[in-house]
Q: What sequence folds into this?
């Protein structure tokens, strides 16, 4: 399968690239900063899958358009998009101290980025026999997970999950699998070294979903990396 992964240079994105290559898939790794984040990903090798690295900043629509043109020209179609790129900033801000520039930056990355990705790559996904969209969200965006902090991040992830529900209903008649994913608290640059979860376990779950090895509940609005429904 041909799998496009954003935010592929580190953390969960990198782990997902590695897992997909290990399983023999053709991977397109979208990386925002090629000078900083591409060196170690170029070291990944697979005798079965192939790796293509494309410059891709989800906050800049022109880079998405350019990446789509490259992929369409070289590959024709893709089978899955993993919208993994995301940021977590303004962690200590209260409502009274919240800088809305941080709010806008977060929404551009965590919500508008995935929306623009689907906007432009949907035609290539429609050419797949088993198209899949995975939007990496968070339990922080669940209503029962509202803990009164991380306002930009939590609100953006809540909106991303709603967008996922929207396109799930819009595309279900075309055979799409659309998933809003809670990746768990995992050891990544965002999650920190104290996190209990292993990003490789989450990456394995993501690939199981793309390969449709896991039967997902149709009425679930979000699932964890094992495919289990998350509470609303």
A:
């Amino acid at each position: 399968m041909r799998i496009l992964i954003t935010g592929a240079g580190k953390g969960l994105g990198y782990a997902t690239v590695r897992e997909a290559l290990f399983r023999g898939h053709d991977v397109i790794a979208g990386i925002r900063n090629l000078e900083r984040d591409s060196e170690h990903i170029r070291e990944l090798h697979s005798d079965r899958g192939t790796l293509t690295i494309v410059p891709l900043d989800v906050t800049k629509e022109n880079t998405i358009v350019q990446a789509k043109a490259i992929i369409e020209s070289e590959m024709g179609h893709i089978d899955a998009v993993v919208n993994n790129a995301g940021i977590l900033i303004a962690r200590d801000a209260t409502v009274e101290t919240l800088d809305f520039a941080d709010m806008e930056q977060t929404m551009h990355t965590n919500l508008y980025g995935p929306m623009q990705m689907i906007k432009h790559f949907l035609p290539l996904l429609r050419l797949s026999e088993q198209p899949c969209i995975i939007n990496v969200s968070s339990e922080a965006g669940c209503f029962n997970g509202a803990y009164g902090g991380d306002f930009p991040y939590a609100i953006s992830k809540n909106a991303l999950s709603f967008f996922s529900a929207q396109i799930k209903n819009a595309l279900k008649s075309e055979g799409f699998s659309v998933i809003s994913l809670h990746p768990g608290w995992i050891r990544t640059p965002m999650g920190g070294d104290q996190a209990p979860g292993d990003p490789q376990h989450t990456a394995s779950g993501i690939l199981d979903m793309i390969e449709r090895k896991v039967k997902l509940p149709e009425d679930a609005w979000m699932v964890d990396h094992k495919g289990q429904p998350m509470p609303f």
Remarks:
- The chain has a mean pLDDT of 95.
- The longest helix spans residues 100-125.
